Amino acid sequence: MIQGPKPTILIADDEPANREILSELLEREGYRTTQACDGLQALEMLRNRTVDLALLDVMMPGRTGFAVCSEAKSDPATRLTPIVLVTGLNRSEDRIKGIEGGADDFLCKPVDRAELLARVRSLLRLKLFTDELESAETVLCSLAISIEAKDPYTVGHCDRLSVYAEAMGKRVGLDSDLLIALRRGGIVHDLGKVAVPEHILRKPGALTPEERKIMEEHPVAGERICAPLKSFRNVLPIIRHHHEKLDGTGYPDGLKGDAIPLTARILSTVDVYDALTTDRPYRRALTREHALDTMRTEVKKGWWDPALIHELEVVLNEPETEDLVRIGAR
What we know:
Layout: E1 8-12, H1 16-28, E2 32-36, H2 39-48, E3 53-57, H3 65-74, E4 83-87, H4 92-100, E5 105-108, H5 113-149, H6 157-171, H7 176-188, H8 198-201, H9 209-215, H10 218-226, H11 236-241, H12 262-276, H13 288-299, H14 306-316, H15 319-329
Parallel strand pairs: 1-2, 1-3, 3-4, 4-5
Helix pairs in contact: 2-3, 6-7, 6-12, 6-14, 6-15, 7-12
């Protein structure tokens, strides 16, 4: 029997008898079940209720199980919910269709009790691991935002960088995994500042050489904090290298040119822009035009990529960019 909170399993089938058989089997094992009589109702329940696993009949009115699975796996809110397609179809092309739609497993009718329970247990274990991973990511992001909130001059910085960086990544044609990394990197890039004393972080004047050395360790500290999360593997280069410069004068590794990962170069571009356009204790915020001109001047010093500055300017001129920034700040 189940220990702890009972997982909820959605059973979707247009035949009441089939729903009742599956429900009885699962509830006898300690699971909680909920039922949908067609594809549209199943999709609505996946989106608006707590569902830990879904058993979807393939042939349903309104939406087939294939369609429900495909839509659920395309939605960030439901894509991690395990979905099992229950079908009497045995053709290989039907299984291929289900796999392409994102199905996690298949059960053939008539459903074998032992096989049903084994697959449910296996997928729910995977769901538990996924939930724990998401919790760890949430803690890291919350910690990053709490660090940002300590400084009134940087409030909203992480949200803006997340929006700008992802938009630039789309402009240069990065794949979805790297876009996710940029979105996360915008939030956690300065997480390592948790290891920097507050009097250094908030010092209004120039840092001493000793203080600068401590400050320049924060990318390494941030990488070390996030390294245990395998889902952050594409974020780690962003965290470590977002203070590098093309001429090799950046930190912590003094990388030059293309040796700096593109995702890190994108984040450093938006990071510099946001710093220039935000009030600081030692100066007022620059206008958009003045900030971009300043960055173009620094291109001549060999610091930034002029192509990325151009892409940033395009992104900043897109009306939806400011809309996304406002939504993220709420």
